[in-house]
Design a protein that fits this description.
This protein is α+β, with helices and mostly antiparallel strands and 212 residues long. The protein has seven helices and eleven strands. The chain is elongated. The structure holds benzoic acid. The site of benzoic acid has 8 residues, from helix 2.
């Protein structure tokens, strides 16, 4: 079954560096980022897990829990954790699933056989408090991810969930946003966007970020 934006994130139980995790129960009412890396004790993965650990507080401020996964077992992850701490300036501070049986990798289609038969690619699933998949990002093994970009996506999702806006190209939290073209009622526009808006085209209307 292929997973899409809007799909229910499949539930699972799996071992982790923090003990057994049943995914939906572990998420509770939080947002989640489930992300795979190809292999422990590899250079790019080491930098990614360190970077995610350094940014854990930024994720927590947004109500997001981090959960990593690879097909290595928990004992391997725990041995690798000291390398992450020694080289990246941050101790691993969120769980990594030990997915040696590939249960989670298969459920989330994280193994792309044309890239590698056995290892997970760099998949990212952003999951909301209703356990719906809200964003899917996939990178090859050779490209380390930008965790600031994942935070930016979460900022956009959380903003656009509560305001009738969308975020334009290269938007950063605090920049102007665009008003949904479906919103046309002048009274509602005035009420929702008291700072006004600039209409560059009838469908392209910019307004200051409404929750600032
Ligand atoms: C890495 O994390 O450096 C890596 C892992 C698998 C393939 C290529 C690079």
């Amino acid at each position: 079954m292929s997973l899409h934006i809007g799909s229910l994130a499949p539930d699972f139980s799996q071992e982790s560096t923090a003990g057994p995790i049943t995914f939906h129960h572990w998420l509770g009412k939080s947002w989640g980022v489930l992300f795979s890396h190809p292999k422990d004790f590899t250079p790019v993965c080491t930098t990614e897990l360190g970077r995610a650990s350094l940014l854990k507080e930024e994720f927590a401020k947004r109500g997001v829990k981090l959960l990593a996964v690879s097909v290595d077992d928990v004992a391997s992850h725990l041995r690798w954790a000291s390398d992450i701490e020694d080289t990246q300036g941050a101790a691993l501070n969120f769980p990594i699933l030990g997915d040696a049986d590939r249960k989670v990798a298969r459920l989330y289609d994280m193994i792309h056989p044309e890239a590698n038969d056995t290892l997970t690619v760099r998949s990212v699933f952003v999951i909301d408090p209703n356990h719906k998949i809200r964003a899917i990002i996939t990178y090859p093994a050779s490209t380390g991810r930008n965790f600031q970009e994942i935070l930016r996506v979460i900022d956009s999702l959380q903003l656009t969930d509560s305001h009738k806006v969308a975020t334009p190209a290269d938007w950063q939290n605090g920049d102007d946003v665009v008003i949904l073209p479906s919103l046309q009622d002048p009274a509602e526009l005035a009420q929702r966007f008291p700072k006004g808006f600039r209409a560059l085209r009838p469908y392209l209307r910019l307004t200051p970020q409404p929750n600032r």
